[in-house]
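Data availability (excerpt). The following record was deposited with the supplementary files.
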Amino acid sequence: MSKMNQLLGVANNLADSFVSVTNIDFIDHIESLPNEKTKLFKIDLLKESIVPTDLTNKKVKETVKKYKIWFLSEIKKLKIASDLIEKVTITVTHKPGKSFGHYYTCSATIIAKGKTYTKKVISTYS
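Predicted structure:
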């Protein structure tokens, strides 16, 4: 397997971790916000930005920075030069359950050397 194809595993780990219990403080924060603001949000990991911008606060900035550091360490372990990475996007959809629980779909997309590596995961919390 080429080094670049290993980015699929990195994308999978990024998406899975982002909506897992390892990121529960962030998940709790999102669930505390109005549903219309959190139905869909997109994070540009390398630029450390989030859309919609009104979701940005200290907790979100810390979380995004933590994941950027993690991502850069992962590609370093794989011996992939960081300048080959063009963009890293995390897209999260959040839907509260009808009676209880919250549903999340998270896609992590890494664009490197003109190729796109995307993985999608689904998580539920009650």
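Summary of structural features: The chain has four helices and five strands.
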